[in-house]
Design goal:
Rossmann fold; single chain; seven-stranded mixed sheet; Beta-Lactamase; alpha/beta; 13 helices; 13 strands
């Protein structure tokens, strides 16, 4: 048995424990035992504290090689009978550490995610840029995959996804789905995105907006008639828009805002909250873009975007506070959890009143 196979067997053992216990992530951190995340809580596996060299040795060779070159590596990994995993190998206080996520074996249905019903409208769009925001672990990638699966089940379109790594493997249903993995099929997001636009796609999925060049190409694609989906680590509609503009040098930001105003069709943000019934439940906010929102972006008056949610309710928009109030009304979360999660607690107070509109 080679050194690589023996150390990979150790990783496979941890991953088997992760799957058996229904966890979402395996966390390997120096000074602590191997741990898993289960329904948002961290639980230790058997064994003593790890050291960085053990963690680096346990990770699959191709990720380890990239880590040694760049000090950070993202990779996918497949284990027979266990499934697929996303590996992030990184440094922590001078030592190797790893976060490994179990990837689902099937693409979820949008109805399985228990999001507000208006989210379904995003799968019926024909063009424009749709951004999905939320903190890490909020289910952005799952929502995005479900939206693409909805299009795939209902329409005959050419869909290209660009991801690092691929999280959900889409079957060909009515649509033709090509999935490009950065690092395996293309060197980076901008190169993959430019190539994708030469392949006559109807729908383009950019796994994450990581750099200004990717953002610029995605906005241009949305303006020229493609439907483009992507995700960002943000908390609300205004921060999602500002994150893109702030990624560019100050002298370019005004131009970028003009391009965003033309390209954006919708921004969805979401969080996951512990449910009173067990597990976690999503709360979300959606702004469908109209004339008012575009003008606010052009003028860099992003503080007014929240009021556009109320103005555009007829086209499907809803606020986080409305979503939280619905979760309270249906017994999924308590009032205190809702209040702690609200961005505009005064609005939530109104929706929670007996005569409110939540």
């Amino acid at each position: 048995m080679t050194e690589d196979s023996s150390t990979t067997l150790r990783l496979d053992g941890w991953l088997a424990a992760l799957v058996a216990r229904g966890g979402s992530d395996l966390l390997l951190v120096p000074g602590a035992p191997a741990s898993i995340r289960f329904e948002g809580e961290i639980r230790s596996l058997e064994g003593g504290p790890l050291v960085g060299a053990e963690i680096e040795a346990a990770v699959v060779p191709h990720a380890r090689q990239l880590y040694r070159e760049t000090l950070i590596a993202d990779s996918s990994y497949r284990v027979a009978q266990l499934g697929r995993f996303r590996i992030n190998l990184h440094r922590e206080r001078g030592n190797a550490a790893a976060a490994i996520r179990a990837l689902p074996s099937r693409v979820p249905l949008l109805s399985d995610l228990h999001l507000p019903p208006n989210v379904d409208a995003l799968a019926h769009l024909s063009r424009g840029l749709v951004l999905i925001g939320g903190p890490a672990g909020s289910g952005k990638s799952t929502t995005l995959a479900a939206l693409i699966h909805e299009i795939n089940r209902r329409e005959s379109r050419h869909i290209i996804t660009i991801e690092d790594p691929i999280e959900y493997e889409h079957p060909h249903v009515l649509s033709l789905v090509e999935q490009v993995e950065v690092g395996t099929d293309a060197p980076d997001f901008p190169t993959a995105l430019r190539a994708a636009l030469r392949q006559a796609p109807d729908v383009v999925v950019v796994g994450e907006m990581r750099d200004p060049e990717t953002m610029r190409i995605a906005m241009a694609a949305a303006e020229t008639g493609h439907l483009v989906f992507s995700t960002l680590h943000t908390t609300d509609v205004a921060s999602t828009v500002s994150r893109i503009a702030d990624s560019f040098p100050p002298e370019r930001q005004n131009t970028i805002r003009q391009e965003m105003a033309m390209a954006l069709t919708a921004v969805l943000t979401q969080i996951l909250l512990p449910s009173k019934r067990g597990g976690r439940v999503p709360a979300a906010e959606l702004l469908m873009f109209g004339y008012g929102a575009r003008q606010h972006i052009r003028r860099n008056a992003l503080q007014h975007l929240h009021q556009e949610i109320t103005i555009t309710k007829k086209t499907g928009s809803f606020s986080l506070e409305e979503s939280l109030a619905q979760l309270v009304a249906h017994g999924h979360i308590d009032r205190e959890t809702a209040m702690l999660s609200a961005i505009h607690p005064d609005d939530l107070e109104i929706f929670l009143k007996p005569d409110g509109r939540g």
